[in-house]
Amino acid sequence: MKIAVLDKSTLGADIDLSPIYALGEVAEYESTSPHLVAERVADADMVVINKVKLFEDNLKGAENLKLICVAATGFDNIDTVYCKEHGIALCNVPGYSTVSVAQITVGMVLSLVNRMDEYRSFVTSGEYTRSGIANKLTPVYHEISSLKWGIVGGGGIGMKVADIAAAFGCEVMVFRRKQEGGYPLADIDTICRECDVISVHLPLSEETRGIISRERIASMKDTAIVVNTARGAVCDEAALADAILESRIGGLGVDVYSAEPFPEAHPFTEIMNRENVILTPHMAWGSKEARARCVEEIAKNASAFFSGEERNRVV
Questions:
Q1: Is 231 a catalytic residue?
Q2: Any catalytic annotation for residue 63?
Q3: Which among 69, 110, 189, 302 is placed 20 to 30 Å from 127, CA to CA?
């Protein structure tokens, strides 16, 4: 069996791919530019990708292709309609990064609530030493237990974040479609209007694209902290940048972008050096443990498929 791994670098140089190598003959590529995708999948029986886009134009020549394994939970970079019509199976890896993403989400919130960058800068700039005063208590920060935390998206990651927020003593409310779970449900407009912390955990779809809109951002408290570790396009990025520039929200943490990496013309370039902004390079999913889990799950998905079993099948 021929296996093509198209963007190994996105999994990290420290991750062992031997579970995938055990399945067949592997052609491993650190990255694959769009114009090379068709060539590299042409004779593959199985393809492993993370961020590479697979659509009709680069799949139509892959006559041997039976299985695509995406090293992620989301699969909006793959033409599922084409795959279904042409008998190409697709497996994803749900749940592997729940703890990792929740940890980064909460870490961003804690840093922004506690104004850590501002306090750290006060010391590292030498201002603390020159001040001659033992402490500094501005900017004002608040105990997280005094805050209302809104979870936008009640899947595995959202619920993990909700549990951590509740453990801190926050009042938690959740926007989700399913009427279940141990936290009060609220519509998204109520969460945007009332919550002190708003963390976004939605998959990207036509329904969720731009759901954190300019109008909803305008309704937020001027002290609200917004964190997006889901998909960039679920938020109006220009509106978030404007809200920071105009001090209409209190802080912003983002790990995901509508274009990755975001270009120089992106609205976040104007705010990325602000002390109340944390921008990270789509790394929240990628703890070492999560990445190793992901590779192991890909191998299990593939083994199941070629044994005639269904495991984590999307198509």
A1: yes
A2: no
A3: 110
